[in-house]
Write a structure and sequence with these properties.
heterodimer, A: about 100 residues, alpha+beta, 2 domains, two-stranded antiparallel sheet, B: about 260 residues, mainly alpha, two-stranded antiparallel ribbon, about 65% helix
């Protein structure tokens, strides 16, 4: 949640780039999450996982929130953060992978 | 029979089916050592709740840290120890020993002595199913090698599946990140056994099989450089989507909550 302002900025800044932010949300049922997303102005795609013991959080062995994975354009896992990286580090890694995708 | 019915009525159980009444009445005859332990646990928990309330009301950092320290309730340790000595060998004594581990013994020799007593006097009891997670939490005090040894003995010698499964789960989750390939292999084998034989057992985080499966999945499918496992999800409007829909794009996958 602390990352929301930066995530909004990222989505806006990279909207014409080969980049997507996808959320796996553990707040609760779809109905409640939909309201929260509208209130917070969150536009990017979400998976509704129900709770912290939801099927995806369990399957992906998520033990703390936020947990982030950065996946390259070929679908390979490239970075993993538990607890969220600094804004500068996140931007740098994303931009490097976008440049890599464009060079291919 | 008549006196039993009267007793059940007095307890306010008149509406329950007869079989249930019997079970409740049998349970109500608590052994004296168990009653003593229950009372001690109630006092201990009240102490913790009081300290938490103080913590929440505290104005300064000193007050807060003092409330947190007192919340540990270390002054209760001698009482739990005395109860374990007075009724040695009973389940109440075994549970009192578990409480001393939980509250936190800070000397290695003393902690090892408690564990040794639990192993010698209570190996036949199912109360040892609570021991593995206490060992995991106290590994630094007890010593990692000793913890490994005790967990292995629980798996081998306990007659109870619940004890074996909890011990295997802790054994498996501890060695996963080890630099030693043999330790990692043992860890993997333990987790695979948890999934196959003990999946329905639970700890405070839920089913052991789900957690062990998650750890194995991470080990096998979620290492950097591996292709991201595809997954199908449903968004807040009920629309289904897949991770692979985004191939060709750089994806930041964010497990998050607004709490």
């Amino acid at each position: 949640m602390a990352m929301l302002p930066h995530e909004k900025a990222l989505v806006q800044r990279l909207k014409d780039q080969p980049f997507a932010l996808l959320g796996v949300n553990s707040d609760g049922e779809a109905e409640d999450v939909r309201k929260m997303l509208a209130e917070q102005g969150i536009t990017w795609r979400q998976a509704i996982d129900g709770g912290t013991d939801g099927p995806w959080a369990t399957r992906w062995n998520v033990s703390g929130w936020p947990t982030l994975y950065l996946i390259d354009a070929e679908g390979k896992l490239r970075e993993y953060w538990l607890g969220g990286p600094s804004e500068a580090e996140l931007d740098k890694k994303i931009e490097a992978l976008i440049a890599e995708a464009k060079s291919k | 029979m008549r006196s039993f019915v009267t007793c059940a009525l007095l307890l306010g159980l008149a509406g329950l089916p007869a079989a249930l009444q019997g079970a409740t009445a049998a349970k109500a005859e608590v052994a004296p050592e168990q009653a003593k332990l229950d009372a001690l646990v109630v006092r201990f928990k009240k102490h913790q709740a009081d300290c938490l309330a103080e913590y929440q009301k505290a104005q300064t950092d000193e007050e807060r840290s003092s409330a947190l320290t007192r919340r540990e309730g270390r002054e209760f340790l001698p009482e739990f120890q005395a109860l374990a000595d007075e009724f040695a060998g009973t389940d109440a004594a075994g549970n009192a020993l578990l409480w001393t581990l939980r509250i936190g013994i800070v000397e290695r020799a003393a902690a090892q002595a408690v564990v040794a007593r639990l192993m010698e006097e209570h190996m036949e009891s199912e109360l040892l199913s609570a021991l593995p997670s206490e060992l995991a939490g106290r590994a630094a005090v007890i010593g990692p090698a000793e913890v490994q040894k005790v967990l292995g003995e629980l798996v081998e010698f306990s007659p109870h599946k619940s004890v074996q499964g909890q011990a295997l789960f802790v054994l498996g989750s501890q060695g996963l990140e080890s630099k030693d390939p043999a330790a990692r292999a043992r860890s993997r084998a333990a987790l695979e056994r948890v999934v196959a034989e003990f999946g329905e057992l639970e700890n405070f985080r839920g089913k052991l099989g789900d957690q062990a499966g998650g750890m194995l999945f991470k080990l096998d499918k979620l290492q950097l450089g591996m292709p991201a496992p595809d997954f199908e999800a449903t968004d807040e409007n009920g629309v289904k989507w897949k991770l692979s829909d985004y191939k060709g794009k750089v994806v930041l996958l964010d497990f998050w909550g607004y709490w």
